[in-house]
Design brief:
Blueprint lengths: L11 H11 L4 H6 L3 E2 L2 E2 L6 H18 L4 H20 L10 E2 L5 E2 L21 H4 L9 H4 L7 H17 L6 H19 E2 L4 E2 L2 E2 L5 E2 L4 H10 L7 H14 L1 E3 L5 E4 L19 E2 L4 H10 L3 H18 L7 E2 L6
Length: about 325
């Protein structure tokens, strides 16, 4: 039986435009494009920080493909200007607050306001290393200090830089072009200064308000570097060093000896029992496209082919098409 989609959903760019312009009250797009409530942004209850940024990236990709859509371009740039102004005025002391634009042109967010959104039973984000909050585990109200938008996350800031790049390209010739260009340039400079761990060849997993940095290897670093390959933040040698670290610390192989994917986190919690292990030593297929992009950039053709083969086999044999995660215990590191 042939399924015929409505005209506006027949092709992907048209469907994207339809969602953004014609259905502004769709539940996900309310927060994705920063609906105002008084002086604040109303964030999505699920992953608010990255949803906003990824929506602008998707809109930018649409405009690359539909460069003659002036109405869409104007709408996106208007929303972008509004959103950036809100970022700059958001309150860093607000519990569960929206992203805050800092003087170094990077964003600070609540630690669990990204894809890794699990929290301990006391409300402290599992993105916060155990060693940072040992004294606060049982303290009443201590979680409040860990639930303010004061933390720098690499994947959020990579998405932010990517959003600025799209805004800069689409505002070419407009008054705002130089503002986007300056913001992006400073954000790229600050990103490397804040997140790049030259000694380990890694990206810090999270940076605290007091400057503490977590050097744990994890998939957010892979997402960040993959998104910034076109932004020329890192040299080829630095990317090669990072890829070596991925292969040593994160890459997992299946029992057939084929590379499968990367761990969310290099962790001793390698068996899945529940939420505590949800974002630990688990392989999530959602990270694999970013991994493949970096491996292709580094010329790791055989690894890419192996990942594609193992994922296809997993899809056919174990229902991966329905988004099954993969415990480290099921693989050989």
């Amino acid at each position: 039986m042939k399924i015929v989609l409505p005209a506006e959903e027949a092709d992907e760019p048209a469907f994207t435009r339809h969602l953004i312009l014609k259905r502004p009250q769709a539940s996900w797009s309310q927060s994705v494009f920063s609906v105002p409530l008084g002086e604040k942004i109303v964030p999505n209850r699920d992953y608010p920080s990255d949803a906003i940024l990824l929506a602008f990236i998707a809109a930018g990709e649409y405009l690359i493909r539909k460069s003659d859509d002036e109405r869409m371009r104007s709408a996106i740039l208007t929303r972008a200007e509004f959103t950036i102004n809100r970022f700059a005025t958001n309150e860093p002391e607000l519990i569960d607050g929206a992203p805050v634009l800092c003087d170094d042109s990077l964003l600070t967010v609540v630690p669990w306001h990204s894809w890794i959104d699990t929290r301990r039973v006391n409300g402290i984000s599992r993105r916060i290393p155990d060693s940072w909050c040992e004294d606060d585990i049982g303290a009443i109200g201590a979680q409040n200090d860990y639930n303010k938008p004061k933390y720098r996350l690499p994947e959020i800031n990579a998405q932010w830089i990517k959003m600025l790049s799209h805004c800069m390209k689409q505002s070419k010739g407009d008054d705002t072009e130089e503002r986007y260009r300056a913001l992006r340039a400073n954000a790229c400079k600050s990103f490397k200064e804040v997140f790049w761990n030259a000694e380990a060849g890694n990206i810090y997993n999270i940076v605290a308000p007091d400057g503490k940095k977590d050097g744990t290897w994890g998939s957010p670093a892979v997402v960040a570097v993959a998104m910034l390959l076109d932004e020329h933040v890192f040299t080829e040698n630095e990317v090669d060093l990072f890829v070596s670290g991925i292969k040593k610390h994160l890459l997992m192989y299946n029992k057939d000896g084929l590379p499968f994917g990367i761990l969310v986190k290099e962790s001793s919690k390698r068996v899945y029992f529940g939420d505590e292990e949800y974002h630990e030593a688990m392989v999530w297929p959602r990270d694999t496209p970013y991994l493949i992009k970096i491996l292709r950039y580094a010329g790791e053709v055989e690894l890419v082919q192996g990942i594609l083969r193992s994922n296809l086999k997993h899809q056919m044999d174990e229902g991966f098409v329905f988004y099954k995660s993969f415990s480290a215990r099921m693989a050989i590191h």
